[in-house]
Amino acid sequence: MDYALLTRDLRLADRIADSLGRGAHCGERRGDRFADELTMLRALRHRPYDLIVFDARCVSATHNPVLSWRACHADSRAPVVVVGSFDGPAEMFLWYDLGAADVLTLPFDPNELYVRATLARRGQARAASAPARLSVGPYALDRDTGTVKLHGGAIALTSREFAMAWLFFSNPGTCFNRGQVAKSIWGNYRDCADRTIEQHIYKLRKKLSLGIANDVALRTVYGFGYKLEVGSCSDAHEPEFAAPTAAGPHPAA
Q: 10 and 94: one domain?
C-alpha cells in the first residue's frame, strides 16, 4: 500500500507507518510524509497513491487544496482518512461532507486505523467500478475517460479543461468565484492569475460551443465569477452561490 501522509508530527508518522504496515497480505508498503498541503499536492499530481492520510491538526477542512484537486480528477481519487482531535461531531461530519472516507480521533488504535484504511480502499475500488457520467442538455461527460461529447460527437479537451467542464456541468446554476475555480482546477489560487482563468473559460466556451445554438451557456457573473446556465434556469430563480469550500471535480495535473 502506497500512502501519502500530511503531518508535521514525526511520532504520529511512525505510528501510522506501523499501523498501515500490518496484515499478512499487506505486501509492499511505501509511505511519503509531507509537511504542507502544496508539497503533497505536487506529489499527487505526478504519482498515484492508494491512500491519503491527513493529520487534522495541521490542515484546514474548509480551505483544503488537496480535497478540491482530488474532487476534480477521477483517476486520482485515492480515499482520504483523517486523524486528529476534534471539538465535536460537527467537526468530524464536516470532513465526511468534504469527501473523507473515514475519520478517527487521536489517540487511535493501530489495528483500527489499519482496518478502516483497508475498508476505505475497498469502498473506493467499488466506486471506481461504476462510471462517473453526467448529461446536461446535448452534452455528455465521462469523468472516467475525461471525455465530453456534444450531440454524440467527441470534443478534445486538455485535463484542466475537462476538470473545469466537470466543475460547472456537475453544478449547473451555481456561481463559483475565481478563487474557487482556481483551487478546484489548480489546487491553489496563487498558482494562476485571473487572466489564466479567463483564458481557460474562453477556450472552454469556444471548444464546447457553449451558448451557441443550444440552451447551455457558461456565463460571467460580474463581480463574482462564473456559472453554467441550462435552458431558462436563470429566469426561474436567483442563482445559487457556492460556499467558500465548494469543490468540483478535481484539479488537473
A: yes
pLDDT higher than 70, residue 16: yes
Q: Which of 61, 54, 77 is nearest to 251 (CA)?
A: 77
Task: State the residue range of the domain holding 95.
Answer: 2-128
Which stretch of 61-65, 209-213, 243-247 has the lowest confidence by average pLDDT?
A: 243-247
Residues with Cβ within 8 Å of residue 101, at least 6 apart in sequence: 79, 80, 81, 120, 123, 124
What are residue 197's phi and psi, to 5 degrees? -65, -45
Number of domains in the chain: 2
122, 31: one domain: yes
100 CB-near residues (< 8 Å, 6+ apart): 54, 80, 81, 82
* Structural contact between residues 243 and 180, judged by C-beta atoms closer than 8 angstroms: no
- Of 128, 157, 184, the one marking the end of a domain is 128
- Enumerate residues 6+ apart whose C-beta is below 8 A from 96: 103
